[in-house]
Design goal:
The complex is a heterodimer of chains A (about 400) and B (about 210). Helices cover about 50% and strands about 15% of the residues of chain A. Chain A has helices at about 5-10, 20-55, 80-90, 155-160, 175, 210-220, 245-250, 260-300, 305-315, 315-325, 330-355, 365-394, and strands spanning about 60-65, 95-100, 105-110, 115-120, 125, 145-150, 180-185, 190-200, 210, 230-235, 255. The two termini of chain A are about 20 Å apart. Chain A has about 400 residues and is an alpha+beta fold. In chain B, strand 7 (about 160-165), helix 7 and strand 8 (about 195-200) form a beta-alpha-beta unit. Chain B has a 5-stranded parallel beta sheet. In chain B, strands 2-1-4-5 form a 4-stranded antiparallel beta sheet, with helices on one face. Classes of the chains: A alpha+beta (about 400), B alpha/beta (about 210).
Chain lengths: ~400, ~210
């Protein structure tokens, strides 16, 4: 029907009445689409912000996990058993988990005559893959008199804070490696002395680390057990803010530095709010479309005799449905474009209100335009099917 | 297009009427270009027959076929295709858009499947004596005028079958003849068949076959 167009059949529709419900449905549709588009854009923004916050050079985060000490479990052994560690290692949202094994015997350190300093100490060992700085010399074999140590940068900083007050010299990161430390390990039968030297500083692990081979030997020979439970476990993950991880830790009463996961916890809350908003948007869209369908039904009911006669004369219900649906394409397109424009303006404003967030784009995400186009297509399709169905009933 | 009635029996028909009928319960095939007059008194089912043939009603036994296809299986789109290109009708009750002008009533059929240019509407209207009515609402026209509007409307499209259900009932003798001549010319130009249902034999309808309903 090339020469046939909507203008030929327009006079046969009675659309004069009920303008209010038509305009209400337009407004509703606009508000619903705007809510939905903004919600999706905010969802994308939050994911981008979280990603920006959690990106590390390695792509992984290493986080120390310990068991929460409460009044109820205070007297018990709140360390990780090998089974606990194994369970952690098997979690799909973790790339790995390694226990920090502590000494099971008394250790005392002194810095000899140069720095008159002596203290009881703890030492720990961990799978070397979890240490950020492992120099080639970080090994120990039985009979070796000196023990390489990786020292926490934080501990050095703390030392340098209290050292002046104790008349002790402050140490730079370079000089600390030249300080000789005497490590006294107390055994059931006496004391074994080792020469320790700091081979590296670690930003990641807050501990005094010795090679695993030394810890294993020392715990076996000086302590009570070679395989003690671990007070702490380091976990390796791509996303410290993943909801699964947070839920798992909470369910097992494991404690981690909350600062590492605040974004994740906030993200969950934001996502819940945004999902509610998006759901509300969808609801408003559906209601607006229902309202518009009432308008269409009323219009068709009023024009029933004319439409029935058009069909009798040979007009195709499919063509009439398409033509009627197309009649509202400009209106619907305007609603969608305006909603899209408002979303774009809000996104630009959001970006401007958060300077320095490199991960945040001032433009709307491409998926927003896709959703808007999809909504337009759905609206037109729903109208087409509705009109065709109603014509079929005539 | 070939149209055929295969033992068509309206559900409401009385058995004695059926026996005497040359249509009900019989096989009736309409050949291309054939001019069939169906004669029956009031209440014998002329309008029902036209409605069955046009696919408006299905309260009958037997089959009506278009090109050997049972029209019971047709969907609205199938009917739309045939009604645009193959089959046209003048209803006894005219069926006009009362809130539209005479011209629009005719043109709405023309634009659907244009067979004639728009100027032919005026020509035909003048010929049938309703030229001055084209701009008026059809509801303001007399039955006779409305009948002529319905006739012109039916001639605006291509067709191979034209159904006429008492098309001249409100016309005087003179106007009947003018209308019949126009219909005959248009049908001949398309080599179309005509099925005319009326109360009695119409002399100026050049029937090739007469069927008593």
């Amino acid at each position: 029907m090339p020469s046939l167009s909507a203008r030929h059949i327009a006079p046969f529709f009675d659309g004069r009445q009920n303008k209010a419900s038509r305009w209400f449905s337009y407004a509703g549709l606009g508000i619903g689409i705007l809510l939905l588009l903004c919600a999706v854009q905010m969802y994308i923004n939050i994911n981008r912000l979280v990603r920006e916050k959690s990106t590390r050079s390695t792509g992984y985060e290493y986080i120390s996990v310990s068991k929460l000490i409460t009044n109820e479990n205070m007297g018990k052994d709140n360390r990780f058993t090998p089974a606990d560690v194994q369970q952690l290692q098997q979690q799909p949202f973790l790339e790995g988990a390694a226990p920090l094994i502590a000494n099971q015997f008394r250790v005392k350190a002194s810095a000899g005559n140069i720095i008159p300093f002596s203290t009881d100490l703890f030492i720990e060992s961990i799978n070397e893959a979890f240490i950020d700085t492992v120099p080639p010399g970080f090994t120990w074999q039985e009979g070796q008199p000196d023990v390489p140590v990786i020292f926490s940068s934080d501990f050095l900083e703390m030392y340098n804070i209290f050292a002046p007050g104790q008349d002790l010299p402050q140490l730079s990161e370079k000089t600390v490696s030249s300080v000789s430390i005497m490590l006294e390990c107390y055994t059931p039968g006496g004391m074994q002395q080792y020469k320790a030297h700091i081979v590296a500083l670690s930003d990641r692990i807050n501990s005094i680390l010795v090679p695993s081979s030394f810890m294993h030997y020392a715990n076996k020979n000086f302590g009570t057990t070679a395989q003690p439970n671990a007070g702490r476990v380091y976990i390796k993950t791509k996303d410290a803010n993943s909801p699964e991880l947070l839920q798992y830790l909470e369910a097992n009463q494991y404690r981690i530095n909350k600062d590492r996961t605040w974004l994740g916890r906030s993200k969950q809350l934001f996502q819940a709010i945004i999902s509610t908003l998006a759901g509300f948007g969808v609801l408003v869209i559906v209601l607006a479309m229902v309202l518009f369908s009432f308008y269409l039904q009323l219009m068709i009911a009023r024009s029933k005799d004319n439409l029935a006669l058009l069909l009798t004369l040979g007009y195709s219900p499919g063509w009439i449905g398409r033509t009627v649906a197309k009649r509202w394409v400009p209106v619907y397109a305007t609603i969608v474009v305006v909603s899209l424009a408002i979303t774009a303006v809000l996104q630009y404003g959001f970006k401007m209100s958060m300077p320095g967030r490199a991960g945040l784009s001032p433009w709307i995400h491409w998926s927003i335009a896709v959703i808007a186009t999809g909504l337009l297509a759905i609206s037109v399709m729903v109208n087409y099917r509705l009109v065709k169905k109603m014509l079929g009933r005539l | 297009m070939h149209i055929e009635l295969q033992q068509v029996l309206p559900v409401f028909i009385e058995p004695e009427k059926m026996a005497a009928s040359e249509v009900w319960g019989k096989l009736v095939a309409i050949a291309p270009g054939e001019q069939v007059q169906v004669i029956a008194p009031s209440g014998s089912g002329k309008t029902s027959l036209v409605h069955f043939l046009y696919g408006l009603r299905k309260d009958y036994a037997g089959k009506v076929t278009y090109d050997k296809k049972d029209i019971r299986g047709f969907n609205p789109e199938d009917f739309a295709r045939y009604r645009q290109q193959e089959i046209s009708v003048v209803f006894q009750d005219m069926r006009l858009f009362t809130d539209q002008t005479v011209f629009d009533n005719i043109n709405i059929k023309r634009v659907l499947a244009p067979y004639h240019p728009e100027s032919r509407i005026t020509e035909m209207a003048n010929r049938l004596g309703i030229g001055s009515k084209l701009g008026k609402l059809s509801s303001t026209c007399s039955y006779g005028e409305q009948q002529r509007i319905a006739i012109i409307r039916s001639l605006m499209q291509p067709f191979s079958i034209l159904l006429l259900d008492e098309p001249f009932s409100h016309l005087d003798e003179h106007n009947r003849q003018i209308a019949m001549t126009l219909i005959a010319e248009e049908a001949a130009a398309r080599q179309a068949a005509i099925i005319l249902a009326d109360l009695k034999r119409i002399d100026y309808f050049p029937a090739t076959r007469i069927l008593n309903l």
